[in-house]
Every structure is written in C-alpha cells, then in structure tokens.
Predict the structure of cysteine desulfurase.
Amino acid sequence: MALPRRLLPLFLRRGGRLPSSPAPAPTPVRALSTAALPADALAAEEEDDSITIKGVRISGRPLYLDMQATTPVDPRVLDAMLPFYLSRYGNPHSRTHLYGWESDAAVEEARARVARLIGADPREIFFTSGATECNNIAVKGVMHFYRDRRRHVITTQTEHKCVLDSCRYLQQEGFEVTYLPVRPDGLIDVAQLADAIRPDTGLVSVMAVNNEIGVVQPLEEIGRICREKGVPFHTDAAQALGKIPIDVNQMGIGLMSLSAHKIYGPKGVGALYVRRRPRIRVEPQMSGGGQERGIRSGTVPTPIVVGFGAACEIAAKEMDYDERRVSALQQRLLDGIRSKVDDVVINGSMEHRYAGNLNLSFAYVEGESLLMGLKEVAVSSGSACTSASLEPSYVLRALGVDEDMAHTSIRFGIGRFTTEEEVDRATELTVHQVLKLREMSPLYEMAKAGIDIKSIQWSQH
C-alpha cells in the first residue's frame, strides 16, 4: 500500500524507511568552462551543452570573465544555504515555534556578518531583493521623507542606471537634481561637489566602484564634505563590497547599497545600510507587513540571506588574498594584450581602480564585432543592465571618450575563481580577434599610413 504524500515527512522523521532502490549514478563533476578539456571530452561536452540563439548554435562553456555582471556562488556559501532549504525551512517571522525561531536566529547572524564587513551595527542593516531596490529606497525614500525641507539631490553622470532613473523620477515630482561631471579618469572633482551642495540639498549619491570601468571614488573625502555640510551621503557599493576595505564610520557614509551576487553569494538578496546616529530617516517604498523594521516589507528569504552572510564572512577573511591574486591576473591580461596589440586604451583611472575590472578600448575595431568573435570568452561591452543597447556607453561618454572609441570597449571581469590558464587563453583569443578585424579594416590601414581619419570629409549618399 502506497504511503500518502502528506504523511511521508512524518513517516521519515519517526524512523520509517522506504523500500530500497538502486542508488542513482553519481553526476560527473563538470568544469565551468571547456577551455582546458581534451578533444574527446570537448566533443562530448559540446553535444549535451549546446543552445541555439537566433538560429545560431552555440556549444561548450566559454571562459567566464564577466564578474561585474555576476559571480558564481562559492561552494562554501551553498553549503551554508542548503539546510535552510531542506530541514530548517521555517518562516523567520513565525514567533510561536522552533522552525521560526531557528530561521530568525540565522537571519540575525547573517545580518551581523554583513554589518561586520562594513563596520556597521547589525541594527543598521536591512535586507532587500538586491542593490537596485536598495538604491530606489535610498534615493526616493530619503527625499520623500524630507520633502518639506530638502528638494535637491546631487549625483554623478556615471552612476548605475537605477540611481539615475530614480533621480529622474524625483525630477518629475518637482525635485531638483545636479548631475556632476567626472574627469577623464572617471573620478569626480570633490571641490565641485562641495560647491554644488545647497542648504536644501537632501542627499548626495556617489557610486563607490563603477560597474563599467572599476574606478574607486574618494569615499572618505566625499563623506567628510557631506558631514561638514550636514547632508546624508549614499553610495552604491554593489561592486565594492568584499573587494575594497569599507568602514562606514570612517568614511562618513549614511546609506549604502549592497548585493550578494557580486561577492559569490546568491542572486535575489541585497542589503541597505542606514545610519542610526545621527539618524537618517527613510520613507518605505513598498507597503506590507512591516518586516525589516518597516523599511522593506515582505518575508525575509532565509536561505539566500544566510548565503549573503556566509559570502560576507568569507570576503572578510579572504579579501586581502583575493585582491593580490586578482591584481596579478589583471596585470597578466593587460601585459599579454598590450605586448601584441597596439592602440589599446584603458578606460578609467589605473591608480584608483578595482583590479578585477579591466575596461579596454581597441582602436579601429567595432566592439560588437569583437564580442561576436570572442565566442569562447564571456565578456561584456558595458553594464549587464544596458549592454543589449547598441548605443555607446553613457559612462564612457561622460569620461569624454569619443563615440568611435566608446563603441570598441570590452570589459574583462576577473574574480576569485579565475585561473592563469583562463587569462592566458582569453589573451590569446582577444589578440587573434583584434588583429583579424583590423586586417579587414580600411580605417586601420589609413591610420597606419599616417592619414588623419578625423580630418576626412565623408560624402553623403
């Protein structure tokens, strides 16, 4: 007689055993990429790992060098998450039984781990669905709360699209927004920022590490200016968390947006830091049950929050090692490309930069053609949120990069699990593809012949 499905968990908990069945064959471990597979294994891999996009069959696993878009989950993070999917699955807001209590304790431990990584109090951490939601709550929430006295926001032209769109939303509501320009190296002029602050300025929002060019803004200087002027300072630190040292008190940060999937944690969870002393008030942007002290309603997803906490704990222990290793790989990639290809431009400051982000422009090469040619390397031409657009990157245009060079940019993202072999293979493929495209480019021939291409008057037909 078959056991009813609803009684199966109780049956197993009380020591019941199901009839034995043959153990399933173990799933073979597969590499993340096929770069180093032998020929016979590569053929089998391609056979069962191919997809078709717009009629084009793509097979195999390309090298992954797009760490600014997302990172793979660290196996240690996955290990921490699994119990909260399989056995400790209670709602952390259930206050009347063990399942709820243990989930709530796990959420609070994760909150403490996130707080420790940035030097904050756990009570200042609010879990959300990700950095985009954090940025919306921070920018709109602060200005809506102080709308009677503060009607002015300052941000930069190179912010993430969700910050820029939140500012445009506020403009439609009658708020004023100042979009600060950046220098050719991607850094803001802090003196210009200080001059832009007005008595009615309610928020300054400047990204910590730019997602497209990896430039690290002078957070401590910005925080000092904002503290002196009495203005809350918000920073989108999705690309900075776990990669550069952050201390919210030393840097004078009032609000900070964080994301788990940029630091080898799960997708779908982020955290907003909101300073308690001096207290910054935020108007919630979503109605609901009042979870997360009313700032972000909705059931806190225990497994991925636990994963976020585990990722932060690992980052705190291994940040220095990761930084040294990633820096060496970045230099290896850059030297390898520059040794064989000329007219390569680094976009953004090299001195003030997170090493895992290397944004290069290759003169006389169309970036989209280069991307299509690099089928064995997963890279990007810019932000993953806007890279489907054929328009040149607004970040590069803000740096003063001309349209032709902006169209040739490629962003290489290096991370914790990137290997020297992958970097060498990516170098080889990039060099080959750039040289191949330049051989077909009449513009490259003209430039090498000493002709000033910009001086040519092209006829219209």
In short: Residues 6-14, 17-24, 26-31, 383-387 have pLDDT under 50 and may be disordered.
